[in-house]
Write a structure and sequence with these properties.
The protein is mainly α. The protein has a domain of 256 residues. 72% of the residues lie in helices and 5% in strands. It contains 14 helices and four strands. It has a two-stranded antiparallel sheet with strand order 1-4. Helix 2 runs antiparallel to helix 4, helix 4 packs antiparallel against helix 13 and helix 12 packs across helix 13. The protein starts with a helix and ends in a 14-residue tail after the last helix.
Length: 391
């Protein structure tokens, strides 16, 4: 048993699960206690009177009653952001460069996966698929999204970034923005030529839309059920597997050791016989594949996609990466979870705390305001930058 716990491979596999447990727990406790405390402070406020009046309910009861469901939804969204943010952090960790085209790589993965499932559905296969077959088809869609998105990311690096590697940092940044616009319009052109559609809808099949009852509670005399959709569980499990795989690859493989060496000191790594160009290409491949998988998971969760679907999730994933500490893979995980919980909590409670003055549409402003406050106090993010580490 002791030999197993001391195994580097096993340690790298188990470490992400421990980190996830700690991050989710700390984030949930911090956000929950803040919301409940604010609700009790405002229990005699104008907002409480306007919303509840003489109904017998009050702001603290409303917050506590809905809080478990809000946390579950926030964790699900947070894992989606974390999966996308890993791609940003992978590239930044090696090149110290923000790949703003990563949001469109994410969109490519989403479209490839959805189009594959639509094709299978048009063949009449999805409608009669059993539950195991449904998960197999989803797995194939994720693999296809990862393959095409990873290939696209490698192509972008070779064509648009590698020739500019020795240029001032602003030059490749402008190139990344240009590539982002190009890829978004390329997706739109491809869809208009092949399908004539702007929006694509994730096919309905399997049991992904079913609800699972986690608990039946009674809070302050008010009964409610705590439920989660099957597809939310799929998103969380898939994101966890991606993070475990990435952690194992980066920290327990020979290629991962080379990636860390290039991130720490590129010229020295080259002198030690490491093919820097190949390692950077692999980094883009892995980052793009993660983004493609996240795109399919996003489509599964939110159903509808369009050629510009990557913009806001990509922006929020970048925010999550900065919040956790850009270049820090663990920080990307933490930042995604925190941002997802903050965004979901704001969407659920902002209207209640402001007496309807601000609704759920302002949740993004709230989340970004929290980011600004965190960066004012800690500019390097919650866990700090980790561009290079001991290889």
């Amino acid at each position: 048993m002791r030999r197993l716990t001391q195994s580097p491979l096993l340690r790298e596999i188990l470490r992400p699960f421990g980190q996830v447990f700690v991050f989710v727990g700390i984030s949930a406790v911090t956000i929950s206690s803040s919301l409940i405390s604010l609700a009790f402070l405002m229990r005699n406020s104008y907002a409480n009177e306007v919303l509840f009046g003489k109904t017998g309910q009050n702001l603290p009861t409303y917050v506590i009653t809905n809080l478990p469901q809000v946390l579950i939804d926030g964790i699900t969204v947070g894992f989606v952001y974390a999966a996308i943010a890993l791609g940003y952090s992978m590239v930044y960790g090696v090149l110290e460069f923000i790949n703003f085209a990563h949001s469109e790589i994410f969109a490519i993965g989403a479209f490839v996966g959805v189009e594959l499932l639509i094709l299978i559905d048009n063949l009449g296969i999805l409608a009669g698929a059993s539950i195991p077959e449904s998960y197999l088809f989803l797995f194939l869609a994720i693999l296809a999204g990862m393959a095409l998105a990873g290939a696209a990311a490698m192509s972008v690096e070779r064509i648009a970034y590698r020739p500019l590697r020795g240029a001032p940092r602003l030059v490749p940044l402008i190139s990344a923005i240009g590539v982002s616009f190009f890829l978004a319009d390329a997706i739109r052109l491809t869809e208009s030529v092949t399908t004539g559609q702007f929006y694509r809808v994730f096919p309905t099949f399997g049991n992904f839309d079913e609800l699972i009852e986690l608990a039946r509670m009674n809070v302050f005399g008010i009964p409610f059920n705590l439920v989660i959709q099957v597809k939310s569980i799929v998103v969380i499990v898939a994101a966890l597997l991606m993070m475990v795989g990435l952690s194992t690859f980066v920290n327990a493989s020979r290629t991962g050791k080379a990636i860390r060496a290039v991130a720490q000191d590129r010229p020295t790594a080259s002198l030690m016989g490491i093919d820097v160009n190949r390692i950077i290409a692999i980094t883009f491949l892995v980052g793009g594949a993660l983004g493609g998988a996240a795109g399919v998971l996003f489509a599964l969760k939110f159903t509808r996609i369009d050629p510009f679907v990557g913009f806001f999730p990509g922006l929020k994933a970048f925010t999550a990466a900065v919040l956790g500490g850009i270049g820090n893979l663990v920080g990307a995980l933490l930042g995604g979870i925190v941002l997802g919980m903050l965004e979901t909590a704001a969407g659920a409670y902002l209207s209640a705390f402001t007496a309807g003055a601000f609704g759920a549409e302002y949740k993004d402003i709230f989340a970004f305001a929290i980011l600004i406050l965190v960066l004012i106090v800690r500019p390097s993010g919650l866990l700090g930058e980790q561009v290079g580490q001991k290889a």
